[in-house]
Amino acid sequence: MDHTISLIRKSHHGDKEAREQLVKENVGLVWCVVKRFYGRGAEPEDLFQIGSIGLLKAIDKFDLSYDVQFSTYAVPMISGEIRRFLRDDGMIKVSRSLKKLSYKCGKKKEELTERMGREPTMEELATSLGTEKEELVQAMEAATEVESIYRPIHQEGDSQLSILDRLEEKSRPEEHLLNRMMLSQILDGLDKEERQLIYLRYFQEKTQAAVGEILGISQVQVSRMEKKILERMRKQM
């Protein structure tokens, strides 16, 4: 940790060699994050390059006063950079063209319905738009799917959560390793009673009342402690 902090401090003072050394020492971390996004339609090497940009941002923006491991700070920065790439430069470009055709289809459908007194068939729509029926169906279905998975379901400040972010990803050993590493570092920053509270609540799944009996405090006190601890942990994450 002291070695990494020393390199970060030098990097912040313009030492390019220190910055390059930090990148070299964290290549494995970038690849661990990249593996979370395999199968998303982008080449691993491209994802690695984007993830490396996230790593550089983490190096440049890391506050030396943070009471947190650099890797804990870097992982969400790397992951966020890759997610933005997939959203803005990956699938979303495809969806724009698909949505454009889908939009034209909607307008044409309204026009033909008014003219014909009934809804047009897919063949009639395709002919009117000068495209193949199969292509039109594919565009409409794909556009609907892409719009759906990127539809915001929660927003807090500048942070936006989409359905895609909530989709359960395949279990990967690397992701479990990263999650354990981040959790371990955060829990190390808690005092003994706080760690015990989190362990009892979220690892043994005990109620607040049961935790209160074990710790010798009231359920209300457990609730207040838990809220404060989780808030600190969220900020660190």
Describe what you observe in this structure.
Residues 90-94, 145-151 and 166-172 have low confidence and may be disordered. Helix 4 crosses helix 5. The chain has helices at residues 2-12, 16-25, 27-34, 44-61, 70-116, 122-129, 133-150, 163-166, 173-187, 192-202, 208-215, 219-236, and strands at residues 152-156, 159-162. It folds into three domains: 2-85, Four Helix Bundle (Hemerythrin (Met), subunit A), CATH 1.20.120.1810; 86-166, Winged helix-like DNA-binding domain superfamily/Winged helix DNA-binding domain (Arc Repressor Mutant, subunit A, Orthogonal Bundle); 190-236. Helix content is 74%, strand content 4%. It is mainly alpha-helical and 237 residues long. The protein is built from twelve helices and two strands. Strands 1-2 form a two-stranded antiparallel ribbon.
Supply the key terms:
237 residues; mainly alpha; Four Helix Bundle (Hemerythrin (Met), subunit A); two-stranded antiparallel sheet; 2 strands; flat; RNA_pol_sigma70_r4
Summarize the structure.
The chain has helices at 2-12, 16-25, 27-34, 44-61, 70-116, 122-129, 133-150, 163-166, 173-187, 192-202, 208-215, 219-236; strands at 152-156, 159-162.
Number of domains: 3
CATH architecture of the largest domain: Up-down Bundle
- How much strand? under 5%
Structural class estimated from helices and strands: mainly alpha
Please describe the biggest sheet, giving its number of strands, its sense, and whether it closes into a barrel: 2 strands, antiparallel
Number of strands: 2
Helix and strand element order:
HHHHHHHEEHHHHH
Helical content (DSSP H or I, runs of 4+) = over 70%
Biggest sheet: strand arrangement: 1-2
Task: Report, as a whole number of angstroms, the end-to-end distance.
Answer: 18 Å
Low-confidence residue ranges: 90-94, 145-151, 166-172
Report the top-level CATH class of the largest domain: Mainly Alpha
Overall pLDDT confidence: 76
Radius of gyration: 25 Å
From the 3D structure, determine the CATH topology of the largest domain.
Answer: Four Helix Bundle (Hemerythrin (Met), subunit A)
Number of helices: 12
- C-alpha geometry: flat
